[in-house]
Amino acid sequence: MGQFLKVFAKNESGATAIEYGLIAAGIAVAIATIVTTIGTDLTAKFTAIDSKLK
Fold first, then answer.
1. Can you tell me the distance from the alpha carbon of 42 to that of 22, in angstroms, rounded to the nearest whole number?
2. Is the pLDDT reported for residue 18 higher than 80?
3. CA distances in angstroms from 34 to 29, 30, 39, 45, listed in the order given
4. Structure pTM?
């Protein structure tokens, strides 16, 4: 049982997978924020153009 705990404590593959998952989640949040901001800006521009055309 002691050998199993030593091997388990040295195994870092699970921690690496979690770190990659956190990085991917952070990137996804950043992309969603950027896309939302750009979408809002584009909506405002198209609304301004539409009002000037009328």
1. 30
2. yes
3. 9, 6, 8, 17
4. 0.60
